[in-house]
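During the practical work, I selected for study one protein's amino acid sequence and its backbone structure tokens, as given directly below:
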Amino acid sequence: MMRIDANNIVDVDSFHSVFAEAFGFPPFYGCNMDAWIDCLSDLDDSSSGMTTVHVDPGKTLSLVIEHAQDFKVRCPDLFSALVECAAFVNWRRIESGQAPVLTLAFYA
């Protein structure tokens, strides 16, 4: 399980900073949602170098977004992007014959 304090997210830059720090994204992380998807798509591949956080193959990581309601009100576009991109991570994996790797949980 990974917890993200959404109170630390106030704009696009802080969104990417918070996730890059929490997940240990590589120095070349592009700070955009395509790069976010690329990094989180490899959570079960510790050799990829895309994150320092990993799950065993076939397992999922529960991503708990703390203060989710405030985040949704403060940054509605980022909140929507988070939901859509997390879904896309799993869709991409399913399309390539892999198991989903990410679940979202929202904590008020």
Summary: The chain has one domain: 2-107. The chain has a mean pLDDT of 97.
